[in-house]
Amino acid sequence: MSSGVAVATGTILDRILARTFEDVALRKSGMSLSELAARADAQPTPLSLRDAITRSVPAVIAEIKRGSPSKGVFPVDVDPPDVARAYLEGGAAALSVLTDQPFFGGSLADLEAVARVAHGYAWPAPVLRKDFILDRFQLLEARAHGADAVLLIVAALGDGALDTLFTEATRLGMDVLVEVHDEAELERALRVGATLVGVNNRDLKTFAVDLSVTERIAREVPSHVVLVSESGISGRFDVERVHQAGAHAVLVGESLVLSEDRTAAVRALVGT
């Protein structure tokens, strides 16, 4: 699916996608596609991310990540099941797991461990696989390891690939959070039928963050679309700011992972 990628040469996103293609090709060569599909089909019916984040607005999608390209490995202990429990105790409506290994230090093992905790919790919560998804194989991986939803990044995909992956993820029963960075990408997301749209306040080419991106794009989002503001959220003031602009939920990772008391940090974002 390399023809479906749309990136600018030399950017951080370009390097991430090039490495992702290599890694996916390697994993595909070492695993039977039919076996992976059977594992995916054997999973319980996915929980609805859309339902979870619209029960109580603004909702928090709390992310488990070990590092980032801009910050490197975070100087804290990250045990995914423990972090998941802390987030859920704090009132997170859903969990996100970053599974990219080369640039974020994540893994499918992290996803599976978090899914076991989230699905077995007193109030089961959906789990989002957050990665640079470029191939149907990654969708099957997501389901096989317990994901209820996946992220598709418009900036990383051509129109054909975006439509194909959105359709396939939906066929597998997963909700799809379609990530955009500007109005043109929003238009492309809406064309494929996205009803869950994430506005990433971080420019994936420079990694600069600006919450006004959500405020600007929210004005163009149709009323039937559930909007998630991603990146740059560090406190309740930020949550209220993007909620007033039209966001139904926020996706928060770094500030929560680095908190001394992650449960309290989620509660502060939720407003309890």
Describe this structure as you would to a colleague.
The protein is α/β, with parallel strands linked by helices and 272 residues long. It contains 12 helices and 10 strands. It has helices at residues 12-29, 33-41, 49-54, 80-90, 108-119, 136-144, 159-171, 183-191, 212-218, 236-245, 254-257, 262-270; strands at 59-64, 67-68, 72-73, 94-98, 127-130, 149-153, 175-180, 196-200, 226-230, 249-252. An 8-stranded parallel barrel has the order 1-4-5-6-7-8-9-10, surrounded by 8 helices. The chain has a two-stranded antiparallel sheet with strand order 2-3. β7, α8 (183-191) and β8 form a beta-alpha-beta unit. α2 (33-41) packs across α6, α4 packs parallel to α5 (108-119) and α4 (80-90) packs parallel to α12 (262-270). The protein is globular.
